[in-house]
Write a structure and sequence with these properties.
The structure holds two protein chains of two kinds. Chain A is an alpha+beta fold. Helix content of chain A is about 20%, strand content about 50%. The longest helix of chain A is centred in the N-terminal third of the chain and has 22 residues. In chain B, the strands form three sheets. Chain B has a 13-stranded antiparallel β-sheet with strand order 21-22-23-24-25-26-27-28-29-30-31-32-33. In chain B, strands 2-3-4-5-6-7-8-9-10-11-12-13 form a twelve-stranded antiparallel beta barrel. In chain B, helix 6 crosses helix 7. The chains are: A alpha+beta, B mainly beta.
């Protein structure tokens, strides 16, 4: 048996060497170098118990910091992923604004209404959305469609019938600043069951804060406009 | 400069935590994880919460087909499901790979072992190994009142030891309980028979196996079987069944275990979407256990391929519209444009093979070595073009180039790109407005990227080589390092090679000398594994060209593969929009020495081989291939193959070759056949890469029907950017 154990140890060692080799794959093509990191992440998520979400550090951001930044800024929270991010604008294109995180995720909004994401897993590739005017009119109804990159890289279309209701006036505080808003609620039923989007709208034209359904996996994204 | 307005991420300037993700605690386990475990870990990687479940999933039985415990059920697995099951009770172990080929049709390949396989207890105990194939077809779909009904053939092509046929019906009740009842023949009609409704079962001459035993199907004694499963909650399932398998050989004749009851009971635990465990009481005397790995090829384990978001389309402003177009004839300006485009493409690992710009039209010959999705590469290239080309250029032509040859031409109007970027359903709308046509000639005056050729790349990476089903050790593996290099001298002319050095493994332990009566063109693999460490795998000079419209050619000379060296020439006809492709390949090769060096004298064997091939795509990713011609051992015949390829690149297929070698001369298995699986690396790593890994599983590797393993065959290279494949993958064009 002693020999067997010794052999086993040797083969375990060689297996470890092989694993190291696997992780150390390298070459002249820089595009493939990050393989190491990716492998490590996959292995880690696979082996480690599901980590508890870190507490959000939102409280530590002050109005002063926002002002000092001197660039347009929004706060994005995705509760299902315990993500909170303060992000800047990258592009503005034909009435849309694209905001990006430094790990390459983007959120594209049209007048504050989310129309697409990239690198969010899975992605909202495009959407047919209501206008802010529609969302400000209590009692209105409209249709919505989400196009989500689904299984097998196919486009999954989710359609909804929606109605808008007012939840009344709200004095909304966003990082030490108070805004007079109307809380509008858009309730939709359709292909993914029932979803509810909330908007806090100033003067019927500016969405100051919102909670918008994004895709079936991530569910809701909370967005707050920090700069005017 | 529309693309990068915000400059540096704000976080660094503000000292803010920009993105807070769940803290992934570093784990000590990871670093010490042996290879096999890490592979398992990949699978566990998707061990996230189970989605709320509206209906009961079909579960697998001991033999790896949808079923109860040891008995099959009447329902199929979800379309495309690929599963690997290993189950063991008493002396019996089955390992089964199953694939749901189509919504109603599935196939399985099983490797079985029975320990203590002796008659009299005097000889030393031996283990009996057997390989078998199953086919199942769902004849009736479940309705509100009627059950799902499946007809199955078990071990229909092997030695026949496990042969059995069945008709099984399964009904789901109230979303929690499944009841199965069936009638079995052969093995599944061996206990509690009700007579032979369809006549006597003829005897079987096993010989070297590999025959389809049609004469036996549904003949001989038939016996009923039944089972019930109750899904207590999302995780736990209880099962019970009445088995009609008497285990005549294993329990009766050979006495390997005691079958004292027809009833089996079990409990199963669904750990994640991919992993399921089962524990069973078998036949009143044995404890059984099974592990089921179930993969949905349509869904990447690692999630959607990440990689940063693309840049957006740059809009043409009125200010740029009036620019002079004098630059078109200005060589310096054109070079600067090409360079600027190359810089933008480099973000995604892409490059400019050539760029031609006229006043209204630009053609980019695109090099894409990284992104596995053609439309994604094209979409990103188009957006990059919108940033560097003058406003007067309205038509973008993107010509993907692989191995120096142009594969197709995707023509996009710039105004469509601008208008649709943020439109709902933008992928479909864009798809309707583009054209995909023959690549055509390189426009006069096109400028190549001067830095591109000659181009040298190299790579040091791990490799694994696997040998299956050696009776003394059914799974043998070598892992080691592979150093490969590639020198692209001019577009289409490529010198490349690779060397391997084993680090660990037991492939060389196999020492069963080949008893093949044909030239040992493949069956001396053990000698090659033993002698060649390190070994030169390949060293070739390849030339790719476009001899005409819809025509593609390849000539490769050198050490083409580990066992054969020589020259290989191929021509392919494949119009961009055609489902059909035709190819012809001619090779002259000499068999290489086993030591992995440069010699070809050890065997003194040269052969002219070649095949005429037809490929046809049926849509939904089904590809059929027929090859007719002469194989490496000098035998002539045909190979038929069917593959199913998913949009994300996962490909599962089966093939069989029938040549003029008699079953007796061929040896065990009678003819060459097998299953092949290809999985893109990005399926495991959410990282853009075109690399794949895969394996071909043959019940036995012999010398008949063997095909040269030359790299860079044309069909798979060309098809990636042709109509059908681009359509399948189009969803990522805006990603």
């Amino acid at each position: 048996m002693g020999k067997g154990v010794a052999l086993m140890t040797r083969s375990t060692k060689s297996m470890l060497a092989a694993l190291a080799l696997l992780l150390a794959a390298c070459g002249s093509d820089p595009a493939e170098a990050p393989l190491l990191g990716a492998l490590a992440v996959v292995a880690k998520t696979a082996v480690a118990p599901r980590a508890t979400p870190a507490p959000a550090a939102a409280a530590s951001v002050t109005r002063q910091q926002v002002t000092d930044a001197a660039v347009p800024l929004i706060r994005v929270r995705i509760p299902s992923r315990s993500i909170e991010s303060f992000i800047t604008r990258r592009d503005s294109n034909s009435g849309t604004e694209t905001w990006f995180t430094n790990d390459g995720t983007t959120f594209t909004l049209r007048n504050g209404v989310l129309i697409s994401t990239r690198a969010l897993q899975p992605d909202l590739m495009s959407a047919a959305t209501p206008t802010v005017a529609q969302l400000s009119r209590a009692g209105g109804s409209h249709q919505r469609a989400y196009f989500i990159l689904g299984d097998n890289d196919g486009m999954q279309r989710l359609s909804f019938d929606c109605t808008v209701a007012s939840q009344g006036s709200v004095r909304l505080t966003v990082i030490e600043r108070v805004y007079a808003t109307t809380h509008m609620q858009e309730t939709c039923t359709g292909d993914a069951g029932k979803i509810v989007n909330d908007y806090w709208i100033e003067r019927g034209s500016t969405i100051r804060q919102s909670r918008q359904w994004t895709n079936p996996t991530v569910e809701y994204t909370e967005i707050a406009k920090l700069t005017d | 400069m529309l693309g990068r307005r915000a400059g540096k991420p704000l976080a660094r300037r503000m000292g803010l935590p920009i993105l807070i993700r769940p803290d992934r605690q570093p784990s000590k386990v990871e670093a010490m994880m042996p290879l096999r475990q890490s592979v398992l870990a990949f699978v566990l990687g998707s061990a996230v919460a189970l989605p709320a479940q509206a209906e009961m999933w079909p579960t697998l039985n001991f033999s790896g087909v949808t079923g109860v415990i040891d008995m099959p059920s009447g329902e199929p697995a979800p379309d495309g499901t690929l599963s690997l099951t290993s189950g063991s009770f008493g002396p019996i172990t089955h390992t089964t790979l199953s694939f749901q080929l189509a919504p109603r049709l599935s196939g399985s390949f099983r490797y079985s072992a029975v320990r203590d396989w002796n008659y009299d207890g005097l000889q030393p105990f031996e283990t009996y190994y057997d390989r078998s194939f199953d086919l199942r077809y769902q004849v009736l779909r479940e309705t509100r009142y009627l059950p799902s009904v499946t007809v199955g053939l078990q071990d229909f092509i092997g030695t026949g030891l496990s042969s059995g046929e069945y008709v099984a019906a399964t009904k789901t009740i109230a979303g929690k309980v499944k009841v199965t009842a069936g009638l079995g023949w052969g093995r599944l009609g061996s206990y509690g028979s009700i007579g032979s409704p369809l006549g006597q079962r003829p005897g079987l001459t096993i010989g070297v196996g590999g025959k389809v035993n049609t004469g036996q199907w549904f003949k001989g004694p038939a016996a009923p079987f039944a089972g019930v499963e109750w899904q207590a909650n999302d995780r736990w399932t209880l099962k019970a069944e009445y088995s009609s398998d008497a285990y005549v050989e294993e329990s009766g004749t050979r006495g390997t275990f005691d079958r004292s009851s027809p009833f089996n009971f079990g409990v199963e635990y669904q750990h994640s979407q991919t992993l399921r465990f089962g524990l069973y009481s078998m036949y009143g005397s044995e404890i059984g256990a099974a592990v089921h790995l179930t993969l949905n090829p349509k869904r990447r384990i690692a999630g959607e391929v990440t990689g940063p978001a693309p840049v957006q389309v740059a809009l043409r402003s009125p200010a740029t519209a009036g620019w002079s177009d004098a630059w078109v004839s200005d060589d310096r300006m054109a070079r600067a444009t090409s360079k600027a485009l190359a810089t933008r493409l480099a973000v995604d690992g892409m490059g400019v093979e050539a760029l031609s710009v006229t006043q209204s039209r630009a053609q980019l010959r695109l090099r894409n070595p990284v992104l596995d999705n053609g439309p994604q590469a094209i979409g990103r290239a188009a957006r990059a073009m919108s940033h560097v080309l003058p406003a007067s250029v309205e038509v973008f032509e993107i010509v993907p180039v692989v191995n120096g040859i142009a594969l197709s031409k995707v023509t996009i109007r710039r105004s469509d790109l601008e208008a649709l970027e943020h439109a709902p359903n933008n992928d479909k709308l864009l798809q309707d407005r583009i054209t995909v046509t023959e690549a055509g000639r390189l426009p006069a005056g096109a400028l190549g990227d001067e830095g591109l050729y000659p181009r040298f790349t190299w790579r040091l990476s791990p490799y694994a080589q696997v040998s299956y089903f050696d009776p003394s050790r059914p799974f043998r593996i070598d892992v080691g390092a592979r150093l490969s290099a590639r020198y692209e001298i001019t577009p289409g002319l490529i010198l490349s090679g690779s060397v391997i050095k084993k680090v660990a493994g037991n492939l060389g332990d196999g020492n069963r000398p080949s008893n093949s009566k044909l030239q040992h063109v493949r069956s001396d693999a053990d000698l090659y594994f033993n002698d060649g460490d390190p070994a030169l795998e390949r060293l070739t000079l390849a030339w790719y060209a476009r001899p005409g419209d819809a025509l593609y050619s390849r000539v490769t000379v050198g050490y083409l593969e580990r066992m054969h060296a020589g020259v290989s020439a191929e021509m392919l006809w494949k119009p961009v929009g055609s489902r059909l492709a035709l190819g012809v390949e001619a090779n002259y090769t000499r068999q290489r020495d086993t030591d992995g060096g440069l010699g070809v004298g050890q065997y003194d064997y040269g052969v002219a081989s070649g095949l005429v091939s037809a490929y046809y795509t049926f849509g939904d990713g089904y590809i059929a291939q027929v090859d007719v011609g002469r194989y490496l051992a000098g035998d002539t015949g045909a190979t038929i193959a069917m593959d199913r390829e998913f949009a994300n690149g996962v490909k599962v297929g089966a093939f069989a070759s029938f040549t003029n070698v008699s079953a007796k001369t061929f040896g065990e298995g009678s003819f060459d056949k097998g299953i092949r699986v290809t999985i893109p690396l990005n399926w495991l790593l959410a990282k853009p890469t075109r690399r794949t890994f895969g394996t071909t599983i043959r019940p036995v590797q012999r010398d008949g029907g063997a095909r040269l393993d030359v790299q860079g065959r044309l069909y798979d290279t060309v098809r990636d950017y042709h109509k059908g494949r681009l359509d399948d993958q189009w969803g990522r064009v805006w990603r």
